[in-house]
Amino acid sequence: MKTKNTKEALLVLFEKNKGRFFSGEEIAETLSVSRAAVWKAVKSLREDGYAIEALKGKGYSLSPDTDIVSAQGMAKYLKSDLDLDLVVFDEVTSTNTLLKERAAAGAQEGTVIIANSQTGGKGRMGRSFYSPLNTGLYISILLRPDSMPAQEALKITTMSAVAACRAIETVLLPEDERPQIKWVNDIFYHGKKVVGILTEASMSMENGNLEYAVPGIGFNVYTPEGGFPDELKEIAGAILPDRVPDAKNRIAAEFLNHFFAIYRSKDHGDYAAEYKKRSLVLGKNVDVIPTGGGKTRRAKVLDITEDCGLLVEFKDGTKEVLSSGEVSVRPEK
Questions:
Q1: pTM, 2 dp
Q2: Which of 63, 96, 236, 258 could be disulfide-bonded to 216 (CB atoms 3.0-4.6 Å)?
């Protein structure tokens, strides 16, 4: 067995048995490798940040408090029928950029790239997405929808938003506040943005349908050391105030479980009703910011349609269903 495979197999063993000690001899026999290979794999995992305790006479144990996302760690929570190709990186420029490159090269639907940090994370309208190491979780999924018109790409973003809310709730206490959705792509918790979603796609020029779509989802799981940058501290927040064992693996796996349950169900289920129920903007006055710039207009949100469009009424009495752009909620003067 190669060193890399030994490391991966050891992580599977540890993730399934957090807190349990295994002797070097027991691990070597279980994995059919040498004691030296076990030691090298343990050393490599420690270098990756895994807290592995070693006690004389007891062996090695992965700390129950460990919270590092990995394919092996997610496996405990992922539904067995998802059939995904998971790739986990410590750091990338952008999970969306990397996955779009693989999509263009022919990667199949269900390819998922996950990273612990991004050096060039992307937000909507050309903005960057702050993606520091060890505190966030960044996921991109490759989809190849069957006959989905490009104008319906909004559905992918809104499905992602509902799945993200459900995933967050798996690490919250029953009495905790519920996450809400600010149309179209942000998740707010305790009044702060904790998740951002950016869906990018390629369209067929022949029929106008999507060739592929890549929704990218960034979770602020914890507050970065030293806090968020000055330009973000008023808006950005974290899902959890303190470290929670295995929170990242659970959030990532449950997001994928819920997203594909919606995406693969007939007519995508009734997720739109849940999207509307979780709305942060319904009934409120907002600033409507057009895609590509333009004049911001004040409007009141009247409804969210079955396609998750935003029905607004402007000050002059005209009504419009928005399917692009974004809205900003600010206190009335």
A1: 0.87
A2: 96
